[in-house]
Amino acid sequence: CPECATVLANEQVVGGNCWRHEDTPVIQKELEQWFVKTTQYSDELLRDLDNLEGWPEKVRTMQRNWIGRSEGALLDFKIDGPTGRAGDKVTVFTTRIDTIYGATSIQLAPEHPLVADLVGSDPSLLSKIEDLIAEQKKARDQEEVESMEKHGVFTGRYVINPFSQEKMPIWVANYILMGYGTGAIMSVPAHDERDYAFAEKYGIDIKIVVLPRRTSEPPAPGEDEKPMLPYTAEDSMLINSGEFNELSNEDAMKKMTAYAEQHGFGKATTTYRLKDWGISRQRYWGTPIPMLYCEKDGVVPVPESQLPVLLPDNVEVTLQGGSPLGRIPGFVNATCPKCGGAARRETDTMDTFVDSSWYFYRYTSPQANDKPFDTREADYWFPIDQYIGGVEHAILHLIYSRFWTKFMRDISLVHNDEPVTRLFTQGMVIKDGAKMSKNRGNVVSPDDMVARFGADSTRMYALFAAPPDRDLDWQEAGVEGVHRFLGRVYRFVMRNASAALDRSSAQPVTQELSPKVRQVQRKLHQTIKRVTDDFQGRWHFNTCVAAIMEFVNELYAAEDEISAGRFPAPLLADVQRSLVLLLEPFAPYLAAELWETLGEKDTLLRHPWPKYDAALAKEDEIEYAVQVNGKLKARVSVPADSPEDFVREQALADDKVKAALEGKQIAKVIVVAGKLVNIVVR
RNA sequence: GCGGAAGUGGUGGAACUGGCAGACACACCAUCUUGAGGGGGUGGCGCCGAGAGGCGUGGGGGUUCAAAUCCCCCCUUCCGCACCA
Questions:
Q1: CB contact burial A582-600 (16+ within 10 A = b; e otherwise)
Q2: Is the CB of A156 under 7 A from strand B?
Q3: Which residue, of A60, A273, A274, A621, is most buried by count of CB atoms within 10 Å of its CB?
């Protein structure tokens, strides 16, 4: 990244740009760098995703795609005619070995090493290939890869198809990537879209070798024998494929791979999109890579007794490229631990993602001075029960830290296979349809809102606006509502706190409650349950807030009971304490203030969460919806726990229901306990 | 192209295992607070319709006594990956 003046890993390039500078295109340079062999764990990283049931499907899928496993075969094609330094054959990777009899050319990436051999003597060809390379680079830089027109150059040379022994022309094409597979493909125009387009353009042979039907099934009468081209489905049968004719394509893949292995020109293989992790960074701030370069002994690791390598102070950061550490002789000059001679210290530092891959393990033993962390402590705490972060780390931090855990397990530092059991990805804050970012200039600081409405209102509004796993389109409208609500709470407590100040209010309520007061009590316990459940289980803080609002509305509706003296002081005190406790996670400042106002002396934070009492939450009467053929006709109230027969009776006795039933015959009556009655009529 | 998520009033969003669609808010309307504005209180507010009633969760089919929710097809939006051979 030119802006960071440092190297980036594959994962840190987002759409051709730097992950930290989203409008700065990365440039490519050849450099010698340190890599961590993440690919060693490709298979395990992929396989274990199936067990991460506490992770969002989206993240698991993104990781699967990123690892990009694909099974296929490597096949050698002998080059016809003189060869050079790159050898006498071309190895291609294919997932469709069954179509090899339909391969009518070989396509090489422009950077393929063989290209130089093949075109060495033809300068006009060479310049055309350089054009292809330049074109690929430009398309990548400008993110126009998909719209780039496919074209290529015939090298004038041929290979021999190891199955059919036919001669196949070798082309160099701009759509072949050196970075995937072997940088060379066998082109099967009849059964691959890109190959088809390419062959059409250059008049390369198109040979159909699979048909869209199964071996056992005869061709349906009137069915077209020839498939629509290109025919890429795999539910098919082989033709024009020598001894493999009439095999289903699964069988053909197995048999042809075995054949290639027996004859020594191919083998089954699995490729991955995941690359090793380049961790060298040309930054001052970073963990030094503890390696030395000795002229005599080569690359020598810094001995454990000399770890950690500490960064020097007073470094000038110039952004000139290369590590700033390289200009500090005191840091660079070292002694070779093997021969005692002069050695040069590695001046690149590690990617920050190295540190973030295991920082949480350090939390388990922050005092450990002679090791990263204590394994026993890590065993006690790990894996992490619940991890929270943005989905933007799905293929960065979250894949690196999984890798790091597996590596540490293999060197016996930890005993867990995965770092995190449950992952929660919170949504992004969107403004005007775009992710908020400094580069876009659409960042809305919460400070203005805090200044106008206070931190409590701002926080609570953010929680109320949407559940936290969803993206939130930030808009100012709405915060007033939350602010008003907190005002309502404040005024209610200010008016009624005196009830709580009388210490005798700790006494249980003995007197008979008026219906309105009983309703408040009931609503209180229903609210405690709703808030507790939504808070613990689903993390739906918006519905928690809504529930508390409903409760406060209920309190306002009962204020006349208070002024009429029909609201027992102990209950009123309990109601207010519970309200403040419920509010505390959402509006901590106001809650603390009200807690004091209620005369409480202990710290609000340490006070136990209010208890839900099922008996007090219970409704005395339940309203049933009465439907006729699924359409709502009436509502009837019955005492809670009424037997089904009674509910049915009451429903059928309702006037509106009777009217709806007139002249109809009742076929069935369904009673859903506590909910509704559905009368099915003919 | 592949994969993921989502589509519910004017708006943000509720409806948790199929059971009263629209909780709670915003906006809007009415009303009270001696006038206006502000603040506060109370009430109204899916659509069509005078009403009875009908319609209604992106569209179309299906399963069911009952569908926002389950199944099939299609459309749209957002996100991720991608000449992946």
A1: bbbbbbbebbbbbbebbee
A2: no
A3: A274
Q: What is the DSSP string of A435-495?
A: E--TTTT----HHHHHHHH-HHHHHHHHHHHS-TTS-EE--STTHHHHHHHHHHHHHHHHH
User: Is beta strand A89-94 parallel, antiparallel or unpaired with respect to A70-80?
Assistant: antiparallel
Neighbours of A534 (CB within 10 A): 19
Q: Which residues contact A229 (CB under 8 A, 6 or more apart)?
A: A189, A190, A196, A206, A208
Map tokens 């309200």 to a residue: A579
The pLDDT of residue A433: 63
Does the CB of A680 fall within 7 Å of any strand B atom? Answer: yes
DSSP state for residue A417 in the 8-state scheme: S
- Bridge partners (DSSP) listed for residue A187: A105
pLDDT of res. A623:
87
Tokens representing A109? 């990436």
Strand B closer than 7 A to residue A563 Cβ: no
Intervals of chain A under pLDDT 50: none
> Is nucleic acid strand B under 7 Å from A482's C-beta?
yes
Give the whole-angstrom CA distance, residue A598 versus residue A576: 8
Which residues, 6 or more positions from A534, have their beta carbon under 8 angstroms from its beta carbon?
Answer: A540, A541, A543, A544, A547
**CB-to-strand B under 7 Å, chain A 5-24:** 14-15
- A 33-92: CB within 7 Å of strand B: 57-58, 61-62, 65-66, 68, 70, 72
H/E stretch holding A515: helix A515-533
Nearest nucleotide (C1') to alpha carbon of A182: B85
| A235 Cβ within 7 A of any nucleic strand B atom | no
Q: What is the pTM of this model?
A: 0.81
CB A533 under 7 Å to nucleic chain B = yes
pLDDT in the model for residue A186:
94
Scanning residues 605 through 624 of protein chain A, those with a beta carbon under 7 Å from any atom of strand B turn out to be 623
What is the value of ipTM here, to two decimals? 0.92
Q: Can you tell me the distance from the alpha carbon of A648 to that of A646, in angstroms, rounded to the nearest whole number? A: 5
Residue A130, phi then psi, degrees to nearest 5:
-60, -35
Query: How many degrees, rounded to 5, is the angle at CA A100 between CA A95 and CA A102?
Result: 120
What pLDDT does residue A227 have? 63
Structure tokens belonging to residue A555? 């309190």
From the C1' of B82, which residue's alpha carbon is nearest? A146
Q: CA angle, corner A193, sides to A187 and A194, nearest 5?
A: 60
Residue ranges of the alpha helices (H) in A279-342? 329-332
Q: What is residue A333's predicted lDDT score, i.e. its pLDDT?
A: 92
Query: What CA–CA distance (Å, rounded) separates A600 from A592?
Result: 10
Contacts for A95 with CB less than 8 Å, ≥ 6 apart:
A70, A71, A72
Nearest-CA residue to the C1' of B81?
A65
